């Protein structure tokens, strides 16, 4: 079953074609991760799927309907997007930020309801932000701030969430914290999650479905264990590597080639030196 589909999609900024005649299917109720080199069009594709960028050609289909023909509020009730590096007004509290997620449900004469309040509190609870709801967003740590923004998208009560590089600028601890949160939302609520990630190993660990973008098109898409291999990494990222399996999760794990301090090589060379010294003594 699919929730989002791009058909013959061409995207551009002016005359500069970023995505060309691309076709993609996002599985419903799963985590899909978009991967590819810098500037390949991942974020542009995500913006188009959220109707933030009008296609030059082709269509984006959301739950069976052409997203371009849907009323804005209808789209916002089905799909939420968290762009890269969002910024809130200075001094805005977490609670007030999360309240913004209820905007699609507000009308000119519709007052704040108990349903709205419940949605906000559910979102704060899901992201472990209840105790921080009165704090200013700009006073939070990077991980806390990202959870606050995710809470805002959850308050929209959409079945599909798009996130553009949600772990950017976060340290390792907060990266795992955010990805664990998104994984839990998918597992518990069956939400469809689509995100752009740069860390290929984390993409393989958390994704049910991976889409690799190269030369303005889909290079490959499918289960990480089916599509991630040395050839793909070389072709998409221009990098030589070995692909093994994560010993904890069994998912593909990329070990890039390159220069660096190699303990294995050092140990071999040390063993050779010891053998030479031993032979010298014996002789």
From TrEMBL:
One of its GO terms (molecular function) is ATP hydrolysis activity. Keywords: ATP-binding, Cell membrane, Ion transport, Iron, Iron transport, Membrane, Nucleotide-binding, Transport. It is a peripheral membrane protein. It is found in: Cell membrane. One of its GO terms (cellular component) is plasma membrane. The keyword DNA repair does not apply. Its main location: membrane. GO terms for biological process: iron ion transport. Gene3D superfamilies: P-loop containing nucleotide triphosphate hydrolases. It comes from the Bacteria. SMART domains: AAA (SM00382). The keyword Iron applies. InterPro entries: AAA+_ATPase, ABC_transporter-like_ATP-bd, ABC_transporter-like_CS, P-loop_NTPase, Siderophore_ABC-ATPase. Residues 4-240 form the ABC transporter domain. Pfam families: ABC_tran (PF00005). This is ABC transporter ATP-binding protein. It comes from Radiobacillus deserti.
């Amino acid at each position: 079953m699919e929730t989002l589909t791009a058909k013959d999609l061409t995207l551009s900024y002016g005359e500069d074609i970023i995505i060309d005649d691309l076709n993609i299917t996002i599985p419903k109720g799963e985590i899909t991760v978009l991967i590819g080199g810098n500037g390949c069009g991942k974020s542009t594709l995500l913006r188009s799927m959220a109707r933030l960028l009008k296609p030059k050609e082709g269509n984006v289909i959301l739950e069976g309907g052409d997203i371009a023909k849907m009323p804005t509020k209808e789209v916002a009730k089905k799909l939420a997007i968290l762009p890269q590096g969002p910024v809130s007004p200075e001094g805005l509290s977490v609670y007030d930020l999360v309240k913004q997620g209820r905007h699609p449900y507000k009308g000119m004469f519709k007052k704040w309801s108990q349903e709205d309040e419940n949605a906000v509190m559910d979102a704060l609870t899901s992201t472990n932000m209840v105790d921080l709801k009165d704090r200013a967003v700009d006073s939070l740590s990077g991980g806390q701030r990202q959870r606050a923004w995710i809470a805002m998208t959850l308050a929209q009560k959409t079945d599909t969430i798009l996130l553009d590089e949600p772990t950017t600028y976060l340290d390792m601890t907060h990266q795992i914290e955010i990805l664990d949160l998104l994984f839990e939302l998918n597992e518990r609520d069956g939400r469809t999650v689509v995100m752009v990630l740069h860390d290929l190993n984390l993409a393989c660990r958390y994704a049910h479905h991976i889409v690799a973008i190269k030369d303005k098109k889909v290079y490959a898409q499918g289960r990480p264990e089916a599509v991630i291999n040395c050839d793909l990494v070389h072709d998409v990222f221009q990098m030589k590597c070995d692909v093994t399996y994560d010993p904890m999760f069994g998912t593909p794990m990329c070990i890039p080639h390159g220069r660096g301090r190699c303990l294995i090589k050092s140990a071999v060379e040390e063993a050779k030196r010891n053998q030479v010294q031993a032979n010298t003594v014996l002789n």
